[in-house]
Fold this sequence. Notes:
The complex is a heterodimer of chains A (234) and B (46).
Chain A: H1 3-32, H2 45-51, H3 53-73, H4 76-108, H5 116-137, H6 141-168, H7 189-233
Chain B: H1 3-45
Amino acid sequence: xxxxxxxxxxxxxxxxxxxxxxxxxxxxxxxxxxxxxxxxxxxxxxxxxxxxxxxxxxxxxxxxxxxxxxxxxxxxxxxxxxxxxxxxxxxxxxxxxxxxxxxxxxxxxxxxxxxxxxxxxxxxxxxxxxxxxxxxxxxxxxxxxxxxxxxxxxxxxxxxxxxxxxxxxxxxxxxxxxxxxxxxxxxxxxxxxxxxxxxxxxxxxxxxxxxxxxxxxxxxxxxxxxxxxxxxxx
Amino acid sequence: xxxxxxxxxxxxxxxxxxxxxxxxxxxxxxxxxxxxxxxxxxxxxx
Lengths: 234, 46
């Protein structure tokens, strides 16, 4: 299949599928899923909070892969993917931290606590905020891209630690998908299905946003190339 | 019932995503315009 045709099909289908999945997620969260006996309606925050982490981890994982490929091959396409994925990942990470904090206030009685998983997630946010700052503040774009790529690779260690934090260290953050005893943190099958629909919806949304952001990054590179050509011609 | 927390969480998510999509769209349009202007300028100089 022609590459351009495939790209046009994705551009047409992805937003529609994303919208359908998001509508299904809203229905599942507010109508379908039963109210949690212990936490009450505020437990419904959990579905959107959890759904933020799949796009976050995927996007930051992509940053790491793109960073390795950029350091190895030096091709601009990997640099574009890295910076686009970092921005999308940071958006979802920020929303995940905020929704977690909103859920924590009525359930834990505090907006924030220095639990190992929370602290490591804040560190993750800072790593990728620094990644984007490095690129924007650097006067030499190539040097900025290289330093950012090194940081992008090192962020993977934190991703692994965040996943393992609830099993390795004593904290108050719940282990939801697989609890500390090895079972599921969600007993009701409707809760599991709602979580799955939310994960799918926000994952598709992140994929669509990444495509839009990549398009912007390509345009920015074209602008930079044209400016350089104009400088040569003046 | 903590309904205000539920409302706040979903509002933050939708507003945050909406603002980001609008900003992406604006940036893209501005860049497209800039590409056209630069191409026209380059064509003139060549």
